[in-house]
């Protein structure tokens, strides 16, 4: 059974003088162009969350270190035995190798820190509560905005995010939940009602630090109306420092102010009238006859407003 894979890889990197995961992968390709050692899986191996399953990786490894031992030995050996073998083969003092490996990993933490680990922290930064504003889907509230709350919780794994979306409707609480996934081109969530048939799909702009606001589209069918209608609306999600009060939400009055509504939740912004106009314009949107798309610059202007507010009120 393979053991101590992360430590062995770090010792190997110290012996070879490789600085990045790409360098280490390139070294493996140097002994076998078709090696099963790849960057994606190396992330988990270096993090100690998984180990190579293909025996060929260990065979390539022993060639890389020019050891007489087999690949199976590399997988199964204890750490002292592995260290002694590579020290003897490469003429390196054990204390020096361990010092070099430790220093190498510490000084190159930015390189050897896995993409999965970075993604976990990046997604973890999304955890929190958001006040959500979108156009009402119901024909009975045509032209009004509806308020909802989105709660994001981080879990284990690079894609370990769960989202719960709640609306306070005249017919009662609507609660949908599901997984949230981050990809290079966007943030997505497929939310389902646990005790009903309602489903929403969120397609949002990629998140950025500090993550004060999310925005994009909400797709679903009408909940209140004579018949279900497939619908699409823009949605903004403003991050709150404290959870919204129980029962908060529902339809915003026709003359209601989003800025004033946010202030009631403890998030007061300056130039409220200008912010209201900017947010209203975003949520209404427009169409030129083509696909319904949000200009990135339009969303980024809103991100700038709330990022600056978030940062100015951070300790």
Overview of this structure, please?
- The protein is 40% helix and 24% strand.
- The chain has 315 residues and is α+β, with helices and mostly antiparallel strands.
- An eight-stranded antiparallel barrel has the order 1-2-3-4-5-6-7-8.
- Strand 3 and strand 4 (172-183) form a beta hairpin.
- The longest helix is centred in the C-terminal third of the chain and has 17 residues, at 296-312.
Could you report the average pLDDT, rounded to the nearest whole number? Answer: 85
Intertermini distance: 48 Å
Cα-based radius of gyration, to the nearest Å? 26 Å
Read across the widest sheet, the strand sequence of neighbours is 1-2-3-4-5-6-7-8
Number of strands: 9
- Sheet with most strands: 8 strands, antiparallel, barrel
Helical fraction: 25-40%
Number of helices: 12
Helix-strand blueprint:
Blueprint: H1 5-16, H2 21-31, H3 39-47, H4 55-64, H5 71-76, H6 79-90, H7 94-107, H8 109-112, H9 115-124, E1 128-135, E2 145-154, E3 161-169, E4 172-183, E5 186-193, E6 199-204, E7 213-221, E8 230-240, E9 250-252, H10 258-264, H11 272-284, H12 296-312
Antiparallel strand pairs: 1-2, 1-8, 2-3, 2-9, 3-4, 4-5, 5-6, 6-7, 7-8
Helix pairs in contact: 1-6, 1-7, 2-4, 11-12
Characterize this entry briefly.
With 315 residues, this protein is α+β, with helices and mostly antiparallel strands. The protein is built from twelve helices and nine strands.
State the main characteristics.
315 residues; alpha+beta; eight-stranded antiparallel beta barrel; 12 helices; elongated
């Amino acid at each position: 059974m393979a053991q101590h894979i992360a430590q062995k890889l770090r010792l190997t990197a110290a012996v070879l003088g490789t600085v990045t995961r790409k360098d280490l992968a390139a070294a493996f390709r140097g002994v076998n162009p078709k090696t099963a050692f790849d960057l994606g899986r190396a992330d988990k191996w270096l993090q100690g969350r998984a180990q190579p399953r293909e025996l060929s990786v260990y065979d390539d490894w022993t060639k890389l270190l020019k050891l007489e031992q087999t690949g199976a030995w590399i997988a199964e050996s204890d750490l002292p035995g592995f260290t002694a073998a590579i020290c003897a083969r490469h003429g390196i003092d054990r204390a020096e190798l361990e010092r070099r490996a430790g220093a190498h990993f510490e000084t190159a933490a930015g390189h050897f820190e896995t993409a999965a680990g970075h993604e976990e922290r990046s997604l973890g930064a999304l955890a929190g509560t958001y006040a959500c504003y979108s156009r009402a889907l119901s024909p009975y509230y045509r032209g009004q905005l509806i308020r909802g709350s989105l709660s994001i919780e981080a879990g284990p794994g690079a894609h370990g995010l769960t989202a719960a979306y709640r609306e306070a409707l005249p017919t009662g609480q609507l609660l949908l939940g599901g997984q949230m996934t981050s990809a290079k081109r966007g943030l997505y969530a497929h939310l389902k009602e646990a005790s009903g048939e309602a489903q929403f799909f969120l397609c949002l702009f990629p998140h950025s630090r500090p993550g004060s606001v999310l925005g994009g589209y909400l797709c679903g069918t009408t909940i209140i109306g004579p018949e279900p209608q497939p619908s699409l609306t823009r949605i903004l999600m403003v991050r709150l420092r404290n959870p919204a009060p129980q029962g908060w939400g529902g339809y915003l009055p026709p003359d209601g102010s989003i800025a004033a509504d946010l202030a009631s939740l403890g998030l007061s912004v300056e130039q409220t009238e200008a912010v209201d106009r900017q947010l209203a314009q975003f949520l209404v949107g427009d169409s030129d006859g083509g696909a319904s798309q949000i200009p990135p610059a339009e969303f980024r202007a809103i991100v700038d407003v709330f990022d600056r507010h978030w940062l100015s009120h951070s300790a």
